[in-house]
Structure formats: structure tokens, C-alpha cells
Amino acid sequence: FQTHADTHEICLSSPLLQHEVHVEQPICAAHTIQPAQNFIQVEPELWDENDERYIPAKDYKLSPPWKGPESCFTEFCIYSNKEIGGSGMVLITAARQAYLAAKFPVPAQSSIEPTAYYEKKIPGKGIGLVANRTIHKGEIIFRALPAMLIQATPHMDLDPEVREDLYRQAVDKLPESTREKFMKQMGDTIYAKMEKNAFRLYTDGDKAHSAHLASYPDVSRFNHDCRPNLHYRLRNLTHITVAVRDIPAGEELTISYIYGQEVKSERQSQLRAWGFECSCQQCTLSEADSAASDTRIRLIKELEEEIESKMASKDRGDAIRPEMGGKLVELYLAERLDTYLAPAFTRAALIYSMFGNEEKAREFATQAAEALVREYGPDARDYGSMKSLAEDPKGHWSWGIKVVSGEGVGEGRNRTRGKGK
Ligand SMILES: C[S@@+](CC[C@H](N)C(=O)[O-])C[C@H]1O[C@@H](n2cnc3c(N)ncnc32)[C@H](O)[C@@H]1O
């Protein structure tokens, strides 16, 4: 029983872009920005080896209010739309990618009311966002479109001066209020702002050349915590942040910049690449509590591997024991892994259902359905299955399949698979 999370690991683990595409040293000192150069106005072209036929860039037409291609450098040009999402967007990309990006849906409702949070200086972290009222589990904080989207190739390969000039021209095409927010992000240069704040996304499936950096100035204010109170996911171009527990007024709103299900030393070493030493609650536990946390992280990995390998084995999980599901959830909760609960609840619900434990199957399936919506949205693949398991366990495909006939689970459903039972 592959969970949605198993096939969409990128949602769970996808770190921010800086971590993935850190091929150059970030520019630390202020970089002198040259006056706009006269860019060579070449006809932008894109030879995409994945295309069945060659399509010249001019055939990738963007409809108004999109403008572009402008200020091209080789095949990378600026495309802009001052109206989209009410805050505008600029792209620095190749023609085909601009064409694809401009076709993505625009979210209907952008975010929680702006008075629900405020900006505050957080000691040792710069500026952060703090809850101004209780924010309830499941509330969506931002449903944001990027202000700036830059293809990863020019970001990595362009000469720094040309690049900064191109970026400056693009930022100048944003509406004033968005431009101001963009420029307030951490980082001395526009390049550094992208490095420190952007997320990685793909405009064309998982094709490597469609990798882009997406900058969301509102989202950029979230500081890191290894046990954050917000989960984020990227859908199309939209960045969605959701509360994973009730957040009282006065508490800082945080996301995780890294995959949190790692032992402390690994988490800390990944965060050093961000240029800070993590001092979140989980990283400042006592030595004994920290060792216990690391042990739980290792146990979770072992238990998940054991469950998966047993389920994948020839006898379809005959060696699975019902308490494995309960133990898995217990470890996740003890470790406060609130942003990763959906797969744990889903596994537990299915295991208990397989063994005909109605109460626990219902309880975990209900929790799984809620966590799936928080972590993957209402179209999460396992959502329908968990909802029907919660409502009618005995009608679910998994019900009683590990129970021997005559052990007391619903008649006609006491199917056993494999041998020895
Ligand atoms: C995406 S920005 C977050 C907002 C930023 N604090 C600001 O003032 O705009 C990321 C930067 O914030 C700082 N930061 C974020 N989380 C931190 C943490 N847990 N501890 C220390 N610094 C942190 C680091 O400088 C990091 O490079």
C-alpha cells in the first residue's frame, strides 16, 4: 500500500532552492550594480530536444496583459505581467518555459487576513512573522504566486554583472508595492535575495531544464524551525502554507528549510549551508533528550522500512503485526513531526483495518484524511480511500485481509492472503 507520500516525496523533503542548487558561493558583500547595459537583442530561440519538432520562440505567444520577450540575453528573456494575482509577476526564462508558466492557474484566494500576523525582529534570526490571533490547525496562511521566476540555468551560468543587470531590469517591471516587498527580502543583491529566499519548482513536469527559482516575498519572511508549525507545498506556481497545529497569538510562524526527519547532526550540517546555526527548540534539547530524539528518528526509519518490505514481500505482509501501525504514529507524535503525519496515519489506519480493528482503523483513517488535506490538499491521492475507511471500515478493501476465518471479523471478509494461516 503505497501512500501518496511515497510517490510524492518531493513534497515532504523538497528543501528550499538554495540548498539544492548551491553551485556558486553566495555573494556576501554588496555587489556593485552597473547601469543597465544594452543587451544584444537576439531573436529568442529555444531548441528543446524533448520537443518533437522545433518551435521558434516567436511561436510561443503570450496573451496580454503578459508582455515580452524583452531584454533577451541569449535565449533568456524577461516576460512580465503587472496584473496577475493582483501583485504582478516577472519571468526570466526561455520562450517555451514562459509560455508554459503563463498558462498555470492563478489561485482564487490569496491568503489569510493580513492582520492575522505581524512582522517582528526575532533575536538571532532577522525578521520573522508572528501570529496575531490563534491560527487554527488547517488554516491556509498564504496561497502565493511568485513575484519573480528565474530559470536555474541563467541563474547559475550568467556572468554576475550581466545577471544582476538583467535581474534589476526584471524587478523594475513589477508593480511598485511588489517591487518594494521584493527588495525588502534578505540579501544584498537581487541574486543573493534569490539565493536566500527562493524555492525550486519545475514548469514542465520534472524535466531538468525546466527548473526555476521562484521568489515569494511574503513567504520569504518565514524563519526556519526543525519542528515548524506550518507545512508548505508547491502546486503549479502556487506556494501554499498551512498551519499543522493550533498556533497561539504571539508564537512565531515557521517552516522547515530542510527535510526534518533527520538526526540532529545531519539537520545542523544541512542548515550550516544556509549560513546559520540552528537554535530551535528541537536543536537545543538537553543531551539526553537529543539522544532520545535521534533514537526515535532512527526507529521511525527502521519501522517504515520493515513495514514496506513486509508489505512488498511475496506473502503480502504476513509478518506485519497490528501494533506496528500504533507504534509508528506514537513515534511521529513523540517527535512532534506534525508536518509529516499523513503517511504515518495512513499506514496505521490500513494496518489496523487489515487486522479488523474497527475502532483504531476509524480513528487513524480520520486523522489520516485530515493530515492528507493539510499536507497535499483536497486532491491528495489517498484522501478518498481514508475517508471511506473512516466512514465504513467494513466496506474498505483492506478490511480483515489479515484475519484468519473464524476470528470474528465480518462474514465473507475474512480473507487471508499468502501461506500459513
Ligand atoms: C528566508 S529568510 C527568512 C526571513 C529573514 N529572517 C528576514 O529577515 O527576511 C532566511 C534567512 O533568515 C535567517 N534565519 C532563518 N531561520 C533562522 C533560524 N532558525 N536561526 C537563525 N537564522 C535564521 C537566516 O539568515 C536565513 O538565511
TrEMBL record:
<feature type="domain" description="SET">
    <location>
        <begin position="110"/>
        <end position="258"/>
    </location>
</feature>
<dbReference type="InterPro" id="IPR046341">
    <property type="entry name" value="SET_dom_sf"/>
</dbReference>
<dbReference type="Pfam" id="PF00856">
    <property type="entry name" value="SET"/>
</dbReference>
<dbReference type="InterPro" id="IPR011990">
    <property type="entry name" value="TPR-like_helical_dom_sf"/>
</dbReference>
<dbReference type="InterPro" id="IPR001214">
    <property type="entry name" value="SET_dom"/>
</dbReference>
<dbReference type="InterPro" id="IPR053185">
    <property type="entry name" value="SET_domain_protein"/>
</dbReference>
<keyword id="KW-0732">Signal</keyword>
<protein>
    <submittedName>
        <fullName>SET domain-containing protein</fullName>
    </submittedName>
</protein>
